[in-house]
Specification:
By secondary structure, this protein is mostly beta strands. Helix content is 9%, strand content 38%. β23 and β24 form a beta hairpin. The two termini are 33 Å apart. It is built from 3 helices and 30 strands. The strands form 7 sheets. It has a 6-stranded mixed β-sheet, with no helix packed on it.
């Protein structure tokens, strides 16, 4: 069943900080979706951020309307789309108490095999929450490392996690000095055999690295015992083979992959996952830069890649559309950018390309893919209307076009009906911001 669901803003939060929902984002505020994850029982979670910054806004302000904001909003939905509860984190409480969740520039969700929810971000900050989002059960955090200064003490874990069909966790960890930068960037992809919990930080077995030779590392500061390769902590000269080196050999170009970035890996099979790698971006535009969706097995071997995309015609760099999602139970992977929606099978074959130049698929340019749920539903989020669109995907990907076209038509009708119902219950929807007093919000 196609579903259209809002990303709600608690009205109490809007009122407390005197947020002008009618103001354009160019005035220094915004709402942005970050992730969606579904449980095996059909409940799902959405993570999005409410931020306010720039000239005129301060950490300590005389007026609530002038305060800088950096909220993460985590909303839990029932299978039918009913909002069950909402958690607010990453911003100080009204009395000045720090949030139990450390803020990161980018954050992601993972529903753990035991039902708990993990919230992770760069650099290697992980928080484990109850399914009801009311308590932080465990936390590992690493402070940002100032350039050319000694690192502050911390207790890192991982930057992101995804669940393999076996229940193991596909993890990404950072390393200092990646591409010779003076900070910690995602560089290691590995597997954890157990689930993080209070008093237990699992060991992550490193499988592949992005940059095989990070610079400026020391034994005192940059060896992390919980991330291992060949039985020893990753760091200095000890890490698995480099995907950048693999791509240089494969393409014969030693320069273009310098300073590339690692996307979030996605499981696509019982023992197989996809690792996105994107070449560097430029201020003047990066369309045509290479990228690769590499197929890697759980022994760290690169077995192939998702094929069929052309660097210029299908470029993910236009609009920075870097998300790739996959369904490990059916062996499907999906990518959506300004030029089309792409679908592959686990052997790397491109089975469908829905070109956004076609009228029936043009609306896809406004969406970002977030996940494929365990029952095979593709979750997209509208970037400006703050709506989640959930589309059941057919087992035969050659039938994807008619299914998506029909889902977009249904979405238009559902969106109109939702806006009318929302106005009756909570007042007018201002600039597609779904402010409501009907959600129970809890500060972490």
């Amino acid at each position: 069943m196609v579903q259209t669901l809002p990303l709600p803003l608690p009205a109490t939060l809007v009122d407390e900080h005197r947020i002008d929902l009618a103001a354009p984002y160019t005035s220094g505020w915004g709402v942005e979706a970050e992730d969606v994850r579904t449980t095996p029982t059909g409940e799902f979670y959405a993570l999005y951020t409410l931020w306010r910054a720039g000239p005129g806004f301060r950490e300590v302000a005389a007026s609530p309307a002038e305060e800088r904001l950096a909220y993460r909003i985590l909303t839990r939905y029932a299978p039918d789309g009913t909002v069950l509860n909402t958690a607010l984190c990453c911003h100080d409480h009204p009395d000045g108490t720090p949030s139990a969740v450390k803020c990161s520039p980018d954050m992601s969700l993972c529903v753990l095999p035991d039902g708990k929810v993990a919230l992770s971000g760069t650099p290697d900050r992980t928080h484990v929450l109850t399914p009801e989002l009311d308590t932080v059960l465990a936390a590992w955090s690493m402070p940002n490392r100032p350039y050319d200064e000694e690192p502050l003490p911390g207790d890192p874990f991982v930057t992101s996690m995804s669940v393999m069909p076996s229940g193991r966790l596909l993890c990404v960890a950072t390393e200092y000095g990646t591409h010779r930068y003076g900070n910690s960037l995602p560089n290691i992809v590995g597997l954890a055999e157990t689930v993080p919990a209070a008093g237990h930080k699992p060991e992550v077995r490193a499988l592949v690295s992005l940059d095989g030779s990070p610079a400026h590392q020391t034994a005192e500061n940059d060896l992390r015992p919980h991330v291992t390769y060949a039985g020893a902590p990753v760091g200095l000269d000890n890490r698995p083979h480099s995907l950048v080196d693999h791509l240089r050999r494969d393409t014969g170009d030693s320069y273009v992959w310098s300073q590339s970035r690692l996307g979030r890996p996605a499981p696509i099979g019982a023992e197989l996952f996809v690792v996105p790698v994107f070449a560097r971006t430029y201020r003047g535009g990066s369309r045509g830069q290479p990228h690769a969706f590499l197929l890697v097995d759980t022994d760290g071997r690169v077995t192939g890649r998702l094929g069929g995309m052309e660097p210029w015609k299908d470029s993910p760099f236009t609009g920075h559309c870097f998300n790739l999602v996959a369904d490990p139970h059916r062996g499907h992977a999906f990518h959506l950018n300004r030029y089309g929606l792409y679908a592959w099978t686990a052997d790397g074959s491109l089975r469908a390309r829905l070109a956004t130049e076609e009228q029936q698929f043009r609306a896809l340019t406004r969406f970002t893919p977030m996940e494929v749920s365990p029952d095979g539903t593709l979750a997209l989020v509208h970037r400006t209307q703050h709506l989640m669109l959930r589309i059941p995907i057919p087992d035969d990907l050659t039938e994807l076009g008619p299914v998506v076209a029909e889902a977009l038509r249904i979405h238009t009708k559902q969106r109109t009906a939702l806006k009318k119902e929302w106005a009756k219950a909570w007042g007018p929807v201002v600039n597609w911001h779904w402010a409501t007093g009907g959600t129970r919000s809890h500060r972490l």
